């Protein structure tokens, strides 16, 4: 089990946050922290989501996030052993 | 050109090739329905008995035509009635655009009459969804929806259009082309697939097995699949979604594998040393116990959806891409293989799949008889349960895309709507529906649609008076405690068909059925109520969580 951070570049409009958090909720992954900021381009926001899971969980999270139409980029950032 | 939102919807539907739509009118879609009325020469709208039937019809239409199915419903109950149909399209990757009306933007969030936040309701079961709050974005949104629905891994897209957006006006220009929409999104289809590892593994194996699924149909890779199988002499087992991707006349097509797969197909899968999985997602119904499934063999997984790779099965070699292109690349790089020992073994397995020789009024004989009547171009739809499995086991599919079934969702009541959609898609072609008395009762109201459209649909009810598949499990795993599965209804399906304005018949012996089919002129919907034994079971069967070692065959 690891703590892991995912960085996302997403469309900046209503409903996007919902889609992303629902993806975690559907699989029963708790979000430890969530940070959203508008970027210099007002059409895009940057998100940082910290959650926990094994390697399978992390890979699935990134790939499932990548399928969302409002998600432009996904990067798996820091991973810390618990 | 200044157009209303409703007019823009119609223009965009036409531009995106939606010449037929299914739906049901209501308060918040009145402006759109007014335009559909004026444009009935350009768009054929078919009203069903229930929005769920409309969503299944759009699904059947999409599968039978390979176009995007379109369904329209009003806000509130109209929209919520679509939910099962949307979920069905999501799980079986069917391209669909669902358009719902909603209350005017100024009424949203006030629990107005027939207001439901359908975007939130459907969020986990759509590929993407839109609510149009700005008429300037309406045209582009509709085009975008069609592109999303029918590209990459296909699926349903929902567009919620509040009533005031439909009545607002805007300067309409031909919206951006599909290509421009595609540019906005990562489309993987043009990538060069790297198949080097896969080629090496295939060259080194002795007992290859191809496991092909719905991705073959979605990518239109039927020819490549046949070519590849012939080249490396690999038997092919199919997932339920991929069932028609090879003709059943091809000797190495072993049919469906998995929980209720054919004996030869499942045994081949369980005894191979390499599985080349093409456009499948390793459903639990297909794999059974995953550890046993993957033991002592190499698994190569090819799929267009990166999230499917290593989701259900730990595959060593993976290729993410369009399955048709990957197969083409494999064919280019592979050389012919013989595998004679392996093929001899397969021939032995196939003996257990031989047709029955009796003339009993059994599901097998009924399905084979209807098969003779229908011919190879006829689309066959099913509902969900025993009759569905029997159809996959005993019906010989020849042409690609002729089998419509609710695979991932397993939605009872799917079949009649789907058969209607398929018949409409193929210019009112003869269509067959195999159903059970349980499934059929869920959406039999759509007989009214089949009658009003005068569709030549042959409805074969395998009527055992029980919920057969659940009963089979209760019989095998719950000590014959038949909780809530003995229906004890008195429904007379043939009279019911007559009451709907269709034609109803009954059959109790093969002779009766044969006589009926031999004289039948299918000019409109016809129902045949076939009374079968309630203790008929579906075999072969691998018990849930089991493997090929646990396979139960008929009479053993």
What portion of residues of chain A belong to β-strands? over 45%
Q: What's the overall average pLDDT of chain B, rounded?
A: 95
Distance between the termini of chain A: 6 Å
Number of helices of chain A: 2
Uncertain runs of chain A are none
- How confident is the prediction overall: mean pLDDT of chain A? 94
Write down the secondary-structure element order of chain A: EHEEHE
Structural class of chain A: alpha+beta
Major sheet description of chain A: 4 strands, antiparallel
**What is the overall number of helices of chain B?**
25
Physical arrangement of strands within the biggest beta sheet of chain B: 3-2-4-5-7-6
Helix content of chain A: 25-40%
Description:
The complex is a heterodimer of chains A (82) and B (556). By secondary structure, chain A is an alpha+beta fold. Chain A has two helices and four strands; from the N terminus they run βαββαβ. Chain A has a four-stranded antiparallel sheet, covered by helices on one side. Chain A is globular, with a radius of gyration of 12 Å. With 556 residues, chain B is an alpha/beta fold. The interface between A and B is medium-sized, with 15 and 15 residues.
């Amino acid at each position: 089990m690891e703590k892991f951070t995912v960085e996302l570049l997403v469309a900046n409009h209503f409903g996007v946050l919902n889609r992303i958090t629902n993806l975690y909720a559907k699989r029963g992954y708790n979000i430890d922290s969530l940070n959203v900021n508008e970027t210099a381009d007002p059409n895009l926001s940057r998100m940082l989501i910290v959650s926990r899971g094994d390697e399978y969980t992390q890979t699935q999270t990134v790939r499932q996030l990548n399928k969302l139409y409002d998600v432009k980029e996904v990067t798996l950032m820091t991973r810390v052993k618990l | 050109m200044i157009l209303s939102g409703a007019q823009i919807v119609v223009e965009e539907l036409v531009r995106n090739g939606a010449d037929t739509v299914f739906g049901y009118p209501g308060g918040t879609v009145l402006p759109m329905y007014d335009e559909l009325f004026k444009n009935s020469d350009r768009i054929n709208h078919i009203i069903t008995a229930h929005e769920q039937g409309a969503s299944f019809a759009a699904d059947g239409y999409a599968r039978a035509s390979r176009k995007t199915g379109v369904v329209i419903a009003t806000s509130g109950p109209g929209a919520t009635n679509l939910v099962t149909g949307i979920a069905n399209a999501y799980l079986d990757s069917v391209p669909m655009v669902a358009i719902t009306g909603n209350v005017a933007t100024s009424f949203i969030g006030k629990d107005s009459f027939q207001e439901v936040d359908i975007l939130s309701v459907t969020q986990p079961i759509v590929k993407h969804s839109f609510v149009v709050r700005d008429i300037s974005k309406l045209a582009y949104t509709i085009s975008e929806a069609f592109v999303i629905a029918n590209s990459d891994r296909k699926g349903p897209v929902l567009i919620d259009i509040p009533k005031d957006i439909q009545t607002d006006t805007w300067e309409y220009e031909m919206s951006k082309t599909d290509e421009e929409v595609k540019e906005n999104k990562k489309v993987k289809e043009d990538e060069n697939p790297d198949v080097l590892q896969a080629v090496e593994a295939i060259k080194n194996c002795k007992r290859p097995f191809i496991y092909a699924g719905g991705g073959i149909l979605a990518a239109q890779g039927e020819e490549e699949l046949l070519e590849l199988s012939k080249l490396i002499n690999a038997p092919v087992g199919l997932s339920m979604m991929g069932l028609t991707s090879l003709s059943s006349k091809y000797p190495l097509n072993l049919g469906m594998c998995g929980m209720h797969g054919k004996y030869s197909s499942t045994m081949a899968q369980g005894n191979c040393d390499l599985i080349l999985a093409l456009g499948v997602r390793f459903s639990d119904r297909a794999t059974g116990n995953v550890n046993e499934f993957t033991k002592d063999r190499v698994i190569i997984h090819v799929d267009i959806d990166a999230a499917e790779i290593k989701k259900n099965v730990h595959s060593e070699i993976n290729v993410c891409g369009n399955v048709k292109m990957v197969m083409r690349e494999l064919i280019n790089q592979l050389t012919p293989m013989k595998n004679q020992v392996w093929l001899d073994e397969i021939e032995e397995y196939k003996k257990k799949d031989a047709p029955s020789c009796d003339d009993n009024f059994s599901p097998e004989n009924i399905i084979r008889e209807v098969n003779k009547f229908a011919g190879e171009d006829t689309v066959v739809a099913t509902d969900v349960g025993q009759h569905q499995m029997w159809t996959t086991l005993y019906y010989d599919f020849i042409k690609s895309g002729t089998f419509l079934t609710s695979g991932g969702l397993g939605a009872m009541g799917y079949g009649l709507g789907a058969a209607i959609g398929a018949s409409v898609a193929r210019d009112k072609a003869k269509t067959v529906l195999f159903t059970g008395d349980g499934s059929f009762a869920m959406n039999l109201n759509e007989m009214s649609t089949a009658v009003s459209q005068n569709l030549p649909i042959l409805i074969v009810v395998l009527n055992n008076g029980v919920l057969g598949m659940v009963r089979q499990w209760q019989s095998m795993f719950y000590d014959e405690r038949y909780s809530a599965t003995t229906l004890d209804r008195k429904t007379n399906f043939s009279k019911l068909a007559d009451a709907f304005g269709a034609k109803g018949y009954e059959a109790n012996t093969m002779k009766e059925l044969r006589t009926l089919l031999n004289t039948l002129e299918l000019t409109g919907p016809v129902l045949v109520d076939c009374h079968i034994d309630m203790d008929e079971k579906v075999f072969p069967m691998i018990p849930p969580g089991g493997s090929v070692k646990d396979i139960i065959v008929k009479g053993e």
